Amino acid sequence: MVKAENRWKYKKFIKNIMLYALCALVAICCLFPFYWAIVSSLLDSTHLFSTELWPSKITWANYRCVFGDSTFGSSFLNSVIVALLTTLLTLAICLLAAYPLARHKFPGRKRVLMTALSVTTLPYVAVLSGMFELIRVLDIYNEKAALILSYMIITVPFTLWIMTNFMNSIPNEIEEAAIMDGASRYLILTKVFFPLLKPAVVTTGLLAFIAAWNEFLFALTFTLTNQARTVPVSLALFTGASQHELPWGLIMAASIVVTLPLVMLVMIFQRRIISGLTAGSVKG
To answer: Which residues contact 274 (CB under 8 A, 6 or more apart)?
Structure first.
């Protein structure tokens, strides 16, 4: 009996070691590119391709060039404005649309949800020509409005799907009690549902912000000047001292500057993100 128990403990110990080793391997694979980008951003061009895990000589010249570049600063500000407006408009539209989709039965309801879900599977290039024609007709080419409109094609479908599923998980008794107290639909949505929807709002808002912040194809296609470009396009257009030189150190430094705000947002809201992704999976 004792031997069987010891054998079971030994097997459990080995399984735990293998599990921790696998988790450590996955963490290294995910974090090492980011770590190497930090190391590369602290090297000058002569030591950029060295194989040292940590540079023996650190330079902040790349970061000084990034912060001293007015074009990068303008692109960074454009990304902040476009991502924030895209997120706010997406949340406003999806909150208003998710309420009837989740709480009311009407013909075509499932088709709307399935259409929203299917749109998320389309490659962006499939809608590129149609979006270009729409932006041309609206005369908003090379404007922030063009980016916001095109980004909402990406952010609205998955936000609507998550919001609808989350609203479905709210018990009907809460809405019925509010109706009995004389609350209007608007008050139910804003005063009753919205406080319960905060985890979903934070989750979808952050996902929408990240999608808008990192988008490249639409930003490259629908902007022409540095005054309208966002950060991903500016990073792609960085040039070195000569035509055939790629300033990897400068690109890595700019990438770190661009990535840090997203990392900080995820770390601040990580608990709400997890609860927002899982709360809508169970009804009741």
So the answer is: none
Residue 74 and residue 258: Cα distance in Å, rounded? 13
Task: For residues 175 and 192, give the distance between their C-alpha atoms in angstroms, rounded to a whole number.
Answer: 8
Token reading at 221 = 């296609």
For residue 282, the model assigns a pLDDT of 47
Q: Where are the alpha helices (H) located in 120-247, listed in sequence order?
A: 128-138, 144-168, 172-180, 185-187, 194-196, 198-214, 217-221, 231-236
Q: What is the DSSP string of 80-95?
A: HHHHHHHHHHHHHHHH
Q: Which domains does the chain have, with CATH numbers?
A: 70-279 (1.10.3720.10)
Token pair, residue 28, equals 């290294």
How far is C-alpha 243 from the chain's CA centre?
33
pLDDT at 222: 93
Distance CA 191, CA 104 (A): 19
The whole-angstrom separation of Cα 71 and Cα 253 is 15
**125-131, long-range: CB < 8 A, 24+ apart:** 125/217, 127/153, 128/217, 128/218, 128/221, 131/218, 131/222
d(CA 65, CA 236): 16
| pLDDT digits 0-9 by tens, 218-259 | 999 999 888 889 999 988 887 765 566 678 888 888 889 898
For all residues of the chain together, what is the average pLDDT?
84
